[in-house]
Design a protein that fits this description.
- The complex is a heterodimer of chains A (110) and B (110).
- Chain A contains no helices and eleven strands.
- Chain A is globular, with a radius of gyration of 14 Å.
- Helices cover 0% and strands 49% of the residues of chain A.
- In chain B, the strands form two sheets. In chain B, strands 2, 4, 5, 6, 9, 10 and 11 form a seven-stranded mixed beta sheet that branches. In chain B, strands 1-3-8-7 form a four-stranded antiparallel beta sheet, with no helix packed on it.
- Chain B is globular.
- Classes of the chains: A mainly beta (110), B mainly beta (110).
Chain lengths: 110, 110
């Protein structure tokens, strides 16, 4: 079964501290993995995807196929990072559905 | 700039009413999705469509149906609204893998 698990509902860290949001997935095959973010009063939007291997707003995520994980990391949290973060997966077929996790609310304390 | 527009930001309906939620995208995307977003549960897929008149059930299709007569428009129908369908509904379209979201419709069933 396709599933995305985000074990933390809320993560609260101090400004300047490192951040790691956990994501584990189950999927038979090789999915595409994503992180989406929703800032207060804004639409849900793509933050990054594993195939790009890029850093967006200082965030990176590495796909670990052995552990079926795709954790999101940032070395130094900033107050503007406070938001709701969702991990998601999609099969490689163009007609595949996109499955989201339950989300983690990240709160950065000043 | 991709635009996904949902017809209403807020709706209040009575139990038993038939409810239509409309979504339009302007970028000729093949795939469109309907999710409901609930605290602690994240985004749960109701239905998705990968082409005109083509649809597949998501994880929670019970009590819902969809219609896609034109490529740009994807409608979610609550056949007989119930109070447990009170939620935030999000529409999205994707091409090829990134999903673009509407602003959401907060539906309250009383």
């Amino acid at each position: 079964a396709q599933r995305v698990t985000q074990p933390e509902k809320l993560l609260s860290v101090f400004k300047g501290a490192p951040v790691e949001l956990k994501c584990n997935y189950s999927y038979s095959g090789s999915p595409e993995l994503f992180w989406y973010v929703q800032y207060s009063r804004q639409r849900l939007q793509l933050l990054l995807r594993h195939i790009s291997r890029e850093s967006i707003k200082g965030f990176t995520a590495d796909l670990n196929k052995g552990e079926t994980s795709f954790h999101l990391k940032k070395p130094f949290a900033q107050e503007e990072d406070s938001a709701m973060y969702y991990c998601a997966l999609k099969g490689y077929s163009s007609a595949s559905k996109i499955i989201f996790g339950s989300g983690t609310r990240l709160s950065i304390r000043p | 700039d991709v635009k996904v527009t949902q017809s209403s930001r807020y709706l209040v309906k009575r139990t038993g009413e038939k409810v239509f939620l409309e979504c339009v995208q302007d970028m000729d995307h093949e795939n469109m999705f309907w999710y409901r977003q609930d605290p602690g549960l994240g985004l749960r897929l109701i239905y998705f469509s990968y082409d005109v008149k083509m649809k597949e059930k998501g994880d929670i299709p019970e009590g819902y149906s969809v219609s896609r007569e034109k490529k740009e428009r994807f409608s979610l129908i609550l056949e007989s609204a119930s109070t447990n369908q009170t939620s935030m509904y999000l529409c999205a379209s994707s091409h090829p893998t990134e999903a673009f979201f509407g602003q959401g419709t907060r539906l309250t069933v009383v």
